[in-house]
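Predict the 3D structure for this chain.
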Amino acid sequence: MREVARAAGVSLNAVSLALRGDPQIPEGTRRRIIAVAAELGYRKDPLLARALARARAGPETRFRATLALLNANEDPLAFTRHPTVPAYVAGCHRRARQLGYVLDEFWLADPLLDARAMGRVWRARGIEGAVAVGLMREDRLPEAARPLWREFPCVVTGVATREPALSFACADHHRLVLDAFRATVAAGYERPALVLDETIDRLTLGRFTGGFLVAQQSLRKHQRLRPFVRVAEARARPELFQRWLERERPDAILTLYHEVRRWLGAAGWRVPRDVGLVQLERRADHPGWAGMDQHNDVVGETAVEMLVAMIQGGVVGVPDFPRATLVGSSWVPGRTLPRRTKGQRMASRVFPLVS
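Done. Predicted structure below.
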């Protein structure tokens, strides 16, 4: 960069600003600096490539690079109708615009567009990398898509993948459960329980149950309840949940599923009089629930930031050492978890509920 500055007769800072397309440097000077850099063989990197493209486009056209936003869900319309995926998508689009990118959306399971065809489309459109959104059941991406990961950098949102192991951004699930548990105890509840599908816990590498088990260490042994992880089975066999409920007798339940409230009603338990409820992924369509805002839109923003950093660093292929960025969550009070008085806690212990 110093050689470019000397040859162009400008300062080192002017070269840096010109290669970033900073408007502080006049358009004519920017073009001259970029041309000198190219003539001197300044190391090829995304910054220079983008600056050259801006110069060729001229002052009347705003140059924007393109990224792929991959729908990794089995539902081709998950970006708009899934309960949580649209928040990731909104964050990805917002941050991409702020960084000067546009996003082209693709469905990874599209039967009309295999990985090689998708790769040709990406190259034709000048797509520089991808963010994958929507993995909910598996911790792997399709084997058939492997050519894409070899050629383009990719970041995953929500979960860590192992085949291939890519860099990812997600909520800090371990800390999330710790914070939700502590807020529940602070509200006067003494026997919080966790209801979580084991598939989700596996996808998050046990961070939900790990946070719950760590949080339980603050309680006496008789207050430590076993999590209920057979959610998928309980949808067909509700007696599984009812037997667990009768055995453990929680006074609050931390969960990802709004249907738990219906299960409790079927068992004769009333919310919040008999048991409090905490939603670990609080959503706008259930505003009355207490719970944790995972800020999935910020997770999407973070994934785009990670991808852009990889592109600017010239990173391609499956990384030897995948990186993870964890995003913090926020506690939101709600009607499903009112503060309990000492008298209410005593009544709950003396008169245990029956279904």
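The longest helix spans residues 296-312.
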